[in-house]
Design goal:
Elements lengths: L18 E6 L5 E2 L15 E7 L32 H7 L8 E6 L5 H14 L4 E5 L4 H11 L6 E5 L3 H11 L3 E5 L16 H18 L2 E6 L12 H5 L2 E6 L6 E9 L7 E7 L2 E4 L18 E8 L2 E13 L8 E4 L3 H14 L7 E7 L11 H13 L7 E3 L2 E2 L5 E2 L4 H10 L4 E5 L18 E5 L2 H7 L13
Parallel strand pairs: 4-8, 4-9, 5-6, 5-7, 7-8, 15-16, 17-20, 20-21
Antiparallel strand pairs: 1-2, 1-3, 9-10, 10-11, 11-12, 13-14, 14-16, 18-19
Helix pairs in contact: 7-8
Family: Belongs to the RecA family. RadA subfamily.
Organism: Kineococcus xinjiangensis
GO molecular function, one term: damaged DNA binding
Length: about 475
């Protein structure tokens, strides 16, 4: 009888089976299994499968140029070159560094294209070759804008392209010193899947443009879109790849535009550039305080000037308040414009509870001049004095400024940058300042002294501030006149 046939035993697999990997489309975080929420940036629904997770190694390559002592490295290649737009250069840290990639983000219609077209024109006027790639508008539309703002230059080259390969071809052909791409979300590559603006496309386009900028030492300006919540659209890795990230902000109904650096490898991130957007173009504002202060010949109850800090720059702003008799039949109205409503409601409660200002049955309106938004706690004291002035129907002393944070106990707390605020107020001709205790500081070399021509009253409580402001409620003010 034949022996039964035994099936062969399969050989033991020594290599571990490859498993699929997953990556977050926002920040690039990698995990071995799918999760609904990214473990790095906490974004929902951004983790996608990227294929098989295979460990790869790279062999050592031949060194073309040996490493040099750090003292022998030429620093001239990293010197910033001014763009010609002073406020733009202030935010960038002196200008554009060759090979640097700057991402400028902002809401539609805020003036991003106008700012970059003006910067490109000024750079071309200095003899540099500038390539302006418009992927959202036609070349004729950009030409009309350039003619309107006076940005026609022989060395400013313009092309309308949405294909990445064609854009790279233009770069090879013209060899520009400065590249402007408007915008990075509308350029697509045919070598990867997905539509323009998608995570994969934006990552591929940005990587290709950044690689070209680094190889050619070509400064690059990229325009980026923003989402409804104000964050930069596209993958979060885009912000990590570029060297500088700037936010261009401004209200649609206001001429003022603010440029802030969110990330800057070559300079500070606490500088702010101010611009005035008009029909004839965009202009830098070295002293924008006049936009936020009313020009009147006589004092009016309910107004107070404060000094706020935008980055390291002190700016004067005017707060206005109106207190009127309520129509009855419910709670009085509390309306704010340019200020946080919850913060103003707290100040009204402090005024009523700590100082006895009658506001429970009176409508109160508090607003800023010029459409500026003030979120700094230092504006608390000025807002409280403006409301107290309106309730008493008495104007504050002329040429007076006030700043300081107000607490629930009625105390006035110190704020940062007090010497700079006081110096700016003195420079603009103000004669009296009501500030928190300790704002003048102590020390040597003039510290602890008020600027020339400025009388400074340091106060510890809101009651002290009202007393220095000489506010006494008139009997007729209770009726809302």
């Amino acid at each position: 009888m034949a022996a039964p046939t035994v099936p062969p035993v399969p050989a033991k697999t020594t290599a571990r089976s490859a498993r699929p990997g997953y990556r977050c489309g926002e920040c690039g975080w990698v995990t071995a299994k799918w999760v609904g929420r990214c473990g790095e940036c906490q974004a929902w629904g951004t983790v996608e499968e990227v294929g098989t997770a295979v460990v790869r190694t790279t062999a050592a390559a031949t060194v073309r140029e040996p490493a040099r002592p750090i003292a022998d490295v030429d620093v001239e290649a990293a010197r910033a070159q001014p763009t010609g737009v002073d406020e733009f250069d202030r935010v960038l840290g002196g200008g554009l560094v060759p090979g640097a990639v700057v991402l400028l983000a902002g809401e539609p219609g805020v003036g991003k294209s106008t700012l970059l077209l003006d910067a490109a024109s000024r750079a071309a006027a200095t003899g540099r070759t500038v390539l302006y790639v418009t992927a959202e508008e036609s070349a004729a539309q950009v030409r009309l804008r350039a003619e309107r703002i006076g940005a026609l230059r022989p060395r400013l080259l313009l092309t309308s392209e949405t294909d990445l390969a064609t854009v790279l071809g233009h770069i090879e052909h013209s060899s520009p010193d400065l590249l402007v791409v408007d915008s990075v979300q509308t350029v697509a590559s045919g070598s990867v899947e997905g539509t323009a603006g998608g995570v994969t496309q934006v990552r591929e386009v940005a990587a290709a443009l950044i690689g070209a900028a680094k190889r050619r030492h070509m400064a690059t300006l990229l325009v980026g879109h923003v989402t409804k919540d104000g964050s930069i659209a596209g993958p979060r890795v885009l912000e990590h790849l570029v060297d500088v990230v700037c936010q261009f902000e401004g209200e649609r109904h206001s001429r003022l535009r603010l440029l802030r650096a969110v990330k800057n490898r070559y300079g500070p991130t606490d500088e702010v550039g101010c611009f005035d957007l008009t029909e004839d173009g965009i202009e830098g504002l070295a002293d924008p305080s006049g936009l936020f202060v009313s020009q009147r010949s006589e004092a009016v109850p309910g107004t107070c000037i404060t000094v706020t800090l935008e980055g390291r720059r002190p700016l004067l702003a005017e707060l206005q308040a109106l207190v009127a008799a309520s129509g009855g039949g419910g709670s009085p109205r509390r309306v704010t414009s340019g200020l946080e409503g919850s913060r103003v409601a707290m100040l009204l409660a402090v005024l009523q509870r700590r100082l006895g200002v009658p506001l429970a049955d009176r409508d109160t309106y508090v607003a800023t001049v010029g459409g500026v938004k003030l979120t700094e706690p230092s504006v608390d004291l000025a807002a409280a004095l403006a409301v107290a002035s309106a309730a008493a129907d008495q104007p504050l002393p002329s040429r007076l400024v006030a700043f300081g944070e107000v607490g629930l106990a009625g105390e006035v707390r110190p704020v940062t940058g007090a010497p700079r605020r006081l110096s700016e107020a003195a420079r603009l001709g103000f004669t009296t300042a009501i500030v928190p205790v300790g704002s003048l500081g102590t020390g040597k070399d003039g510290a602890g002294k008020a600027p020339a021509g400025l009388v400074v009253h340091e106060v510890a409580t809101l009651a002290d501030a009202v007393r220095h402001a000489r506010l006494v409620e008139r009997p007729s003010a209770r009726g809302g006149r």
